Amino acid sequence: MPKWLDIAVSVPAHSQVGGLLTYASDTDLALGQLVRVPFGNREVLGVVWNVHDTAPENSGGHKVRDIAGALEGVPPLSAHWRQLVQFAAQYYQRAIGEVALAALPPQLRDMTPVQLARRLKKKSVSNDQPMAALQSPWPLSEQQQQVLAQIDQASGPFLIHGATGSGKTEVYLQAIARGLAQDPQAQALLMVPEINLTPQLEERVKARFGAEGVVSMHSGMTGPQRLKSWLAAHNGSARIVLGTRMAVFASMPHLKWIVVDEEHDASYKQQEGARYSARDLAVYRARLEGAKVILGSATPSLESWHQSRPAIEGGRYLRLQMPSRIGEGQLPFVRRVDMNHQPRKTVLSTPLIAAIQERVAKGEQSMLLLNRRGYAPVLHCADCGWKSECSHCSAFRVFHKIDRTLRCHHCGFTERVPRACPACGNADIAPMGRGTEQLEEHLSELLVDVKRPDGQAVRVMRIDADSTKLKGALEAQLADVHSGEVDVLVGTQMIAKGHDFRRITLVAAINPDGALFSSDFRAPERLFALLMQAGGRAGRDAAQSARSEMWVQTFHPSHALFEALKKHDYPAFAEQQLKERLEAGLPPHSFQALIRSDARTQAVAQAFLNQGNAQMQSLLTALNEADAALLSEVSVYPAVPMSIQRVANVERAQMLMESTSRKALHKALDVLQQLLHESKSDPAHKGLIRWLVDVDPLAI
Ligand code: ADP
Ligand code: ZN
Ligand code: ZN
User: Fold this and answer.
1) What is the model's pTM?
2) pLDDT tens digits for 248-281?
3) Residues 682 and 544 placed together within one structural domain of the fold
4) Which ligand minimizes its atom distance to the CA of 427?
5) Ligand 1 lined by 165 (C-beta under 6 Å)
6) Which residues span the domain enclosing 419?
């Protein structure tokens, strides 16, 4: 009896196929089975999505092709997994096949059934050992016990709001350990923003649970490593998956626990293809699988904070508080330096320099945060006004003194620094503004006479995307900080995240003001999180915590954000922000989507979007009443150039859609996507390159 199968295959984005193609098969295949199918003149990997007993009515006269073979030996993907993929595809407006195939390890796509069978035979060490990791190395704190008891009693989702160093990680590990001990098959997913920034966590988890049952999943792994982890999770032998956002799609047939650490972190949002939020999908997946999910942060996203308001006000998450640090640990004392009282163009204020010198002399470490890499963001000619613009982008190229280059951080265009102004020949072109390279140089000069307690010269180190380009460089740099080799650490936000540095007693934000007046409504939220996170690196050793300090150099010392920071008062900050957002009708009080288009000219990019919207509005009268009513709940704003309008010679525009109803927003997206598909080849849109949809965008 032949069967007709809808197979999810990876198709180009926006193709009309929707990612499911029909094939025939002589044998019965289970839903979720991995298969290989002919596609054009290639053979590709696919997943069985639907099975029909009768031939499709509408095969357009084409002969339905036979599948090439099934990947036996790999059990089918579960119904829950397929449901997760289907939901993500629909919610983030992409094809099912694209999402499904992107969620599988890349190596699986290129393997024949024979190769895979060989691969599967190679490893067959099963480990059914129970995971006895209940024993914490320390007695749990009162606070940790209370939170664990609540997690035990309620069903969640949970939001742990816990100060940096309050022992959240220990709570995650304990919750997982208890869950795994209760059920010998249960699996847990522990998600972190960026694994390479927290190698310590991986060690800690493996040390606790045994390396056997723990696998990692992140993009830094090789193809064979990823396949190995994936198979271990899929066949259940991995009890714990530790991974970045991609791990939310890991196939885990017995998933019972999900933890999203640093849930506010922007890296949980995928920025290409299906632009999913791994945090939001984690909550969805937990409900689907009947798993418990714990989100945790010292500075939760305002979305999650809002969700965890009291249930009688509509909150759906249970908020669990861990306000105090472990032991006698205290949060750093916050000092604001009013830069209005410093000489013009001061980089490091006099009291801050003195405080750093004092630290060095005592053998303690300092950390300076400046969110801009390179030497200076612009090179400038004072005679004619020339600036180091990128010829391909509407942005300046950044001056890197180390290799004397001008580099565009958007398209990568790099040139040697010109000897003289390219416009007027003036030999005296100068850097404007400052980045981490310059701060590092400046500090080394300022501290040249300061000695460490061992009599040696001070050591300044810079950590940013440039210093860590080579594989292993970041690990080596971090090791130098941990071992005490380094006295002063300079870096971008990279150094603020997660690290358990033990000897830092001073953290300073050099120039954080930019975000206070940004046009992006989420900029203050990000700044506050960054500063709290950075401050959390100070005084992690309780013995030093009483003296630890967080310095903020600012021209707006009495700004509400810094007032809240001073008191380590996230709730006050969140309340004030949520009030502003409510008044402005912004998320989490509304839902947004961005449609972005890229084209040869800005006019074409904008017209494509505006015309789509105009068509949608004119459809309103033709739709049935219910749909028309839904669509009228959506505001669509005219297309505008993106803040960096041109990148690599491509003009970019975006159109914002907003609604208080998710359902209405999605209805509008469905209608609009259809219209955009239909009009994309219209000669009026000549020069259009692509468009994409970003649902719940993080940056506007
Ligand atoms: P967070 O994730 O909230 O920043 P961690 O769980 O990393 O906090 O804990 C901070 C530090 O305290 C870590 O070095 C951890 O090993 C230690 N720690 C955690 N729980 C306890 C405890 N109950 N007793 C003593 N030390 C603890
Ligand atoms: Zn000039
Ligand atoms: Zn460029």
Assistant:
1) 0.92
2) 999 999 999 999 999 999 999 999 889 999 999 9
3) no
4) 2
5) yes
6) 376-433
